[in-house]
């Protein structure tokens, strides 16, 4: 279970999150929608441990453990995974080398043995096939020269390989064509599991037709201002965020 | 005639003069004497000498060590054992021990290559430190690559004997006849903190000759000064790479002249600098003939209180039209106390040329670092992965895959040692 309690954070002295509280139960798929600049990516970065942010109050617990006390790599080993809104290009690092290093680093952190090369290759090949990623792409440097949609698929491939416990998807649907959206949604749905939680950040109801959320949260000005069922996303689609523009607290 | 008054010699210069005077009579020659005079006129360079602006040799060589003599039988026997466990980087191995060519430790040269143990005296040099090398080097090696022959690769191992406390001077002269092809690796092995090493390598390329050269400085002398003099006739091509992974002060200086039309040179390198070390690469490429091409690509990774230096000067002489030059220096600094001095320069005296240069210095990319860590890579491992990628792009200039792999593994050794040092 993910518990974000009264989280306030700023970057370069500018407050962005303002007493945000959010609970995502184990096995739950939670969608977060909200206007541009409301702090969705900031929240996802802080969950993953990006160093640029200053948490001024509050806490983040994963199954009761204080995430904020952990380095990003330790969070990853505990099962936190962020699919970046803008995946980073890493010239000179072959995708396969990176995947293997990441997988084995997490296994080592959990006291497990390294994966053998054949097992590793089999796992990657399987995940790549189901996400319709060409093997040629895996031979390229990580994300370098990938199209926007290819980068997003690569994020989901990493997620599938690392089988995290908490998946935060930051606008994984943006930049995907209609077919790719379905492929990626299928990939995410295949990972749905009673032991795994998802935070799906999106601007579009369309994604939520493919990945049915259990709960929908609305974020505005650095906090969660409304929560509801899937119907909330439909209402937002119709009316936009004007009802929440001046909201000060959860409805 | 009024002789120009030499600057008052300092103590180090007096010691060097003493060493020059003590040379055995049979090696004395007018050329050697002229070279030493050149050195004495200029003296040990300090920072006021432009080409030595970032490396104060006068300060670094305050106490010149006694010159090591030719190794004795015991030293040769001991060297043989160490060479047996040194992995080969080429089929043919030639060995210089303490600067002296030792046939008993070396393979016969490959077909098309003729060896001579004593190098011919080099032409007078303008750089005072190169002049000092010419004046004092007694050992070395000369090889001639026969015309129209593609010789098998050669490695020249510069080994320092176990008791190698002292100064080493040596000279390697490699002559390529017309259309000859040569591939040479020079490795510097076995030096410790009491070694002061000054070597020179002279490449002379006849028309159409092609040479590739890799220098690998992995040991840890107090001083490593390596001068490389490359002369190219028309249509000759030279590709040189240097990996500097050790040495308290390592200075590589390259003097290349494209004397004939359509010559081509590519110089690249990687400096891995940690602790209080300094790695200086200074090169001067002279385009003296039309249609020449030159490329320089140097990268440095500087940690701790290390200093990286890259000075590159490309001179395009009048008449060297259609010259195509490009020079790049890039560095990553890993600590606030690390320094990179980069000075790429162009001096163009012809009008129809395309030349460019650029230099960047930065830190590791924080976004990339976080991305890797968010996937579970510990910080040190993530850093090493990014640094290896940065290094690999420079090493990518080495065409031979086995050599490139050896350079990469030397880089990994350095990265791992650095990682461990930091965790302590
Ligand atoms: N490094 C930074 N420096 C200054 N301001 C920042 C920084 N990072 C984020 N912000 C600001 O914080 C606010 C929230 O940004 P964030 O990226 O979290 O929004 P978002 O909800 O993800 O928006 P979008 O829907 O456009 O992706 C924005 O106003 C943004 O400009
Ligand atoms: Mg965002």
What does this structure look like?
The complex is a heterodimer of chains A (251) and B (424). Chain A contains 9 helices and 10 strands. Chain A is α/β, with parallel strands linked by helices and 251 residues long. Chain A has a single domain (2-250), classed as Rossmann fold (3-Layer(aba) Sandwich). In chain A, helix 2 packs across helix 3 and helix 6 (148-162) runs parallel beside helix 7. The two termini of chain A are 23 Å apart. The model of chain A has no long low-confidence stretch (mean pLDDT 93). Chain B contains 8 helices and 19 strands. The longest helix of chain B is centred in the C-terminal third of the chain and has 23 residues, at 401-423. Chain B folds into 2 domains: 72-363, no CATH class; 364-424, no CATH class. Chain B has 424 residues and is of the alpha/beta class. The radius of gyration of chain B is 21 Å and the shape is globular. Helix content of chain B is 23%, strand content 38%. Chain B has helices at residues 11-21, 30-42, 57-60, 73-84, 128-136, 366-374, 379-395, 401-423; strands spanning 92-97, 100-101, 113-116, 139-145, 154-159, 166-176, 181-189, 195-205, 210-217, 223-232, 237-244, 249-258, 264-273, 278-287, 293-302, 307-316, 324-333, 339-348, 354-362. Chains A and B meet through helix 2 and helix 3 of A and helix 6 and helix 7 of B. Bound molecules: adenosine-5'-triphosphate (ATP) and magnesium ion. Adenosine-5'-triphosphate is lined by residues 11-12, 14, 16, 34, 36-42, 52, 85 of chain A. Residues 40-41, 85, 170-171 of chain A line the site of magnesium ion.
Strand order within the widest beta sheet of chain B: 2-1-5-7-9-11-13-15-17-19
For the record, the CATH class of chain A is: Alpha Beta
Average pLDDT of chain A: 93
- What is the share of helical residues of chain B? 10-25%
Mind telling me the C-alpha Rg of chain A? 18 Å
Structural class of chain A: alpha/beta
Give the uncertain stretches of chain B in residue-range form: 1-5
Shape of chain A: globular
Q: CATH topology of chain A, what is it called?
A: Rossmann fold
Whole-number total of structural domains of chain A? 1
From the structure provided, what is the oligomeric state, counting identical versus distinct chains?
heterodimer
Please give the number of β-strands of chain A. Answer: 10
């Amino acid at each position: 279970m993910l518990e974000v309690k009264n989280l306030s954070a700023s970057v370069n002295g500018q407050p962005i999150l303002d007493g945000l509280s959010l609970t995502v139960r184990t096995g739950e798929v939670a969608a977060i929608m909200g206007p541009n600049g409301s702090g969705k990516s900031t929240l996802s970065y802080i969950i993953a441990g990006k160093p640029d942010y200053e948490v001024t109050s509050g806490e983040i617990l994963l199954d009761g453990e204080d995430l904020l006390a952990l380095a990003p790599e330790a969070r990853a080993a505990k099962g936190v995974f962020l699919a970046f809104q803008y995946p980073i290009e890493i010239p000179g690092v072959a995708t396969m080398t990176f995947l293997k290093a990441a997988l084995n680093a997490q296994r080592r952190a959990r006291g497990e043995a390294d994966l053998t090369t054949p097992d590793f290759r089999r796992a990657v090949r399987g995940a790549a096939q189901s996400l319709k990623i060409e093997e040629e792409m895996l031979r390229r440097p990580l994300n370098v020269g990938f199209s926007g949609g290819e980068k997003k698929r690569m994020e989901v491939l990493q997620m599938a390989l690392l089988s995290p416990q908490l998946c935060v998807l930051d606008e994984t649907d943006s930049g995907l064509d209609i077919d790719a959206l379905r492929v990626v949604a299928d990939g995410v749905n295949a990972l749905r599991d009673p032991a795994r939680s998802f935070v799906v950040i999106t601007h579009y109801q369309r994604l939520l037709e493919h990945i049915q959320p259990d709960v929908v949260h609305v974020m505005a000005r650095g906090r969660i201002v409304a929560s509801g069922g899937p119907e909330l996303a439909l209402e937002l689609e119709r009316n936009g965020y004007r009802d929440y523009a001046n909201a000060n607290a959860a409805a | 005639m009024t002789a120009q008054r030499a600057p008052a010699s300092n103590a180090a210069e007096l010691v060097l003069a003493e060493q020059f005077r003590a040379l055995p009579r049979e090696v004395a020659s007018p050329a050697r004497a002229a070279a030493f005079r050149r050195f004495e006129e200029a003296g040990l360079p300090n920072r006021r000498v432009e080409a030595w602006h970032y490396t104060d040799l006068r300060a670094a060589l305050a106490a010149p060590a006694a010159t090591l003599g030719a190794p004795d039988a015991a030293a040769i026997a001991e060297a043989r054992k160490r060479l047996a466990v040194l992995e080969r980087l080429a089929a043919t191995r030639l060995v210089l021990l303490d600067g002296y060519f030792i046939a008993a430790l070396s393979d016969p040269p490959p077909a098309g290559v003729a060896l001579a143990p004593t190098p011919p005296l080099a032409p007078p040099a303008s750089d005072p430190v190169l002049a000092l090398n010419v004046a004092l080097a007694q050992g070395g090696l000369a090889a001639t690559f026969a015309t129209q022959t593609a010789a098998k690769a050669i490695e020249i191992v510069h080994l320092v004997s176990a008791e190698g406390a002292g100064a080493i001077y040596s000279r390697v002269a490699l002559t390529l006849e017309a259309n000859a092809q040569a591939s040479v690796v020079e490795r510097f092995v076995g030096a410790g903190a009491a070694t002061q090493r000054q070597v020179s390598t002279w490449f002379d390329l006849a028309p159409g000759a092609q040479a590739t050269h890799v220098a690998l400085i992995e040991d840890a002398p107090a001083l490593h000064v390596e001068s490389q003099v490359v002369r190219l006739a028309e249509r000759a091509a030279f590709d040189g790479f240097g990996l500097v992974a050790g040495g308290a002060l390592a200075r590589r200086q390259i003097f290349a002249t494209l004397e004939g039309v359509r010559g081509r040179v590519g110089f690249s390198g990687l400096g891995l600098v940690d602790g209080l070390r300094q790695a200086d690469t200074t090169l001067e490429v002279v385009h003296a003939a039309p249609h020449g091409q030159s490329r320089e690509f140097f990268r440095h990774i500087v940690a701790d209180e290390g200093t990286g230096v890259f000075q590159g000067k490309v001179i395009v002489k009048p008449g060297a039209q259609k010259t195509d030059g490009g020079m790049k220096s890039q560095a990553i600094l890993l600590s606030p106390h690390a320094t990179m001095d980069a000075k790429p320069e162009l001096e163009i005296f012809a009008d129809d040329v395309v030349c460019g240069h650029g230099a960047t210095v930065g830190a590791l990319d924080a976004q990339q670092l976080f991305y890797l860590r968010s996937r579970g890579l510990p910080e040190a491992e993530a850093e090493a992965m990014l640094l290896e990628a940065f290094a690999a792009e420079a090493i990518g200039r080495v065409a031979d895959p086995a050599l490139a792999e050896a350079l990469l593994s030397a880089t990994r050794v350095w990265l791992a040692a650095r990682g461990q040092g930091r965790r302590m």
